[in-house]
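Weekly sync, protein design subgroup
Attendees: M.S., D.O., the rotation student, P.L. (late)

Item 1: inverse folding check
M.S. brought a backbone from last month's batch and wanted to see whether the design step gives back something sensible before we order anything. D.O. pointed out we never logged the input encoding, so this time it goes straight into the notes. Structure tokens as presented (508 positions):
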């Protein structure tokens, strides 16, 4: 197959078989580095099983378009997990674009992979860069740009060499595109799995090539084994399929999923609606969607039972657990270092409910719980659970913002019993911190001088700053320089990781 310029069904089937072999060979490695969105150690297995379902539906004896279309449809019907779901949507895009082709030319294939990554993006409610989606897009765009510069007739082998090369380059970049991946020193598992599919398809054109062995690769970073990742706010990995009575647009169902969780993927194929979502309230969502048709498949996995969250089964204190709700993954990690058994990073623009908060606290509610929340609405929910739910074992420390939550948590003493902590609550109530927020602005120094002049800070002893996701090294340098000029104030900078604002400053 070295000098192939068009593909029939048998050639496509051979490419899919070698892709499956490449993926299967590295299944355990993909599971091991699985970090985003949570470390549930199943990305390799989900992608392999999803691909296997597609292969079982065809043998390559039909036309090229029919072979790929049948493969993609069956792959989508039995897709597993977030990674398998998105991979299936990519092949749905390929299959839909090429379904009427008896033979697939290279020009057909180049146009199809562009269509395919757009279909995959469209299925995801909130696409995140630095994932499989990014790699699908960048591999396609960059390889097509390179090949289009060449003269003469280009074979499929030449093009797939280029596609594999640029896809792998994009995989390596995921390490620095997402803080969670960099924290664990890994690339995105789903992105690497997609590369293995593309590289496996390439290997159909050169049988002398060895399998790509991720474990032995010197190009892939070596995972840190001691990284302690932030908790997810969404506890259950939920998948369900509805046989629709009346098929509406995909956008209609996507809108219904807004604010319900994350890692949300929605697809409609052959009158079937498939949904994948991480949520803390799976049953109400499934109940709501059942009104659109017949529920024919459902799967709910508790992410808190995965290795990433093994610490939820441990306790730092004998008589109680300490829980916090904050914004930003890195703030959550900081709060756990200050004494919390668990700190949940609260997503922006989410619709909170008491059922959701109960589900998050469920591992702890059999004993006493001390709770802090920088989120005012969640604090009110916690108070309602205490007062109206008669939960005397739940003690809510009034925080009123991130700065107050930080200073009260840092000042709390957890060296006694639950009842002794309650007696100290009056002292914590006296701690009040001023909070200031700064948005993205070129004139950060001017903002600081306007809002936090020396006169305004007179009498204050401690200032902390939490940097958001978009903060730059230059912003941090400006902060440190500004407060270093104030000898009577102790200043500390923390990476907060919040979406917005750029900087949150607390002073007391």
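Designed sequence read out in the meeting:
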């Amino acid at each position: 197959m070295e000098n192939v310029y068009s593909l029939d069904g048998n050639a496509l089937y051979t490419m899919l078989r070698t892709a499956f072999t490449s993926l299967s060979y590295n299944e355990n490695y993909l599971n091991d580095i699985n970090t985003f969105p949570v470390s549930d150690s199943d990305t390799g297995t989900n992608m392999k099983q999803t691909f296997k379902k597609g292969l079982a539906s065809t043998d390559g004896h039909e036309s090229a378009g029919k072979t790929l279309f049948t493969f993609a449809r069956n792959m989508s019907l039995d897709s597993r997990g977030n990674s398998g779901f998105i991979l299936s949507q990519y092949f749905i895009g390929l299959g839909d674009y090429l379904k009427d082709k008896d033979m697939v030319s290279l020009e057909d294939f180049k146009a199809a992979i562009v269509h395919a990554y757009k279909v995959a993006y469209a299925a995801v409610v909130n696409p995140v860069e630095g994932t499989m989606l990014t790699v699908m897009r960048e591999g396609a765009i960059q390889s097509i740009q390179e090949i289009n510069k060449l003269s003469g007739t280009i074979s499929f082998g030449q093009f797939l060499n280029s596609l594999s090369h640029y896809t792998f380059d994009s995989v390596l970049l995921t390490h620095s595109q997402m803080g969670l991946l960099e924290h664990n020193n890994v690339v995105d598992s789903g992105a690497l799995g997609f590369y293995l599919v593309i590289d496996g398809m390439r290997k159909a054109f050169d049988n002398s090539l060895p399998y790509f062995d991720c474990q032995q690769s010197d190009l892939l970073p070596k995972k840190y084994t001691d990284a302690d990742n932030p908790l997810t706010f969404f506890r259950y990995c939920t998948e369900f399929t509805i046989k629709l009575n009346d098929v509406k647009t995909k956008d209609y169902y996507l809108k219904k999923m807004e604010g319900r969780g994350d890692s949300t993927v929605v697809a409609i194929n052959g009158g079937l609606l498939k949904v994948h979502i991480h949520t803390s309230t799976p049953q109400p969502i499934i109940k709501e969607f059942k009104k659109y048709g017949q529920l024919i498949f459902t799967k709910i996995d508790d992410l808190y039972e995965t290795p990433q969250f093994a610490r939820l089964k441990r306790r730092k204190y004998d008589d109680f657990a300490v829980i916090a709700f904050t914004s930003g993954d890195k703030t959550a990690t900081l709060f756990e270092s200050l004494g919390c058994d668990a700190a949940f990073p609260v997503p922006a623009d989410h619709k909170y409910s008491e059922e959701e908060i109960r589900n998050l606290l469920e591992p702890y509610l059999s004993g006493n719980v001390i709770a802090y929340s920088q989120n005012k609405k969640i604090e009110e929910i916690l108070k309602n659970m205490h007062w109206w739910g008669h939960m005397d074992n739940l003690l809510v420390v009034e925080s009123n913002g991130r700065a107050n939550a930080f200073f009260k948590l840092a000042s709390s003493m957890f060296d006694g019993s639950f009842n002794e902590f309650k007696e100290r609550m009056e002292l914590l109530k006296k701690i009040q911190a001023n909070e200031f927020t700064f948005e993205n602005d070129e004139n950060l120094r001017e903002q600081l001088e306007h809002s936090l002049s020396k006169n305004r800070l007179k009498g204050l002893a401690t200032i902390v700053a939490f940097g958001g996701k978009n903060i730059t090294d230059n912003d941090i340098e400006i902060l440190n320089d500004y407060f270093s000029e104030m000898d009577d104030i102790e200043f500390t900078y923390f990476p907060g990781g919040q979406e917005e604002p750029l900087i949150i400053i607390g002073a007391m």
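Discussion: The chain has a mean pLDDT of 89. Residues 156-177 form the longest helix (22 residues).
Action: P.L. to compare against the previous round before Friday.
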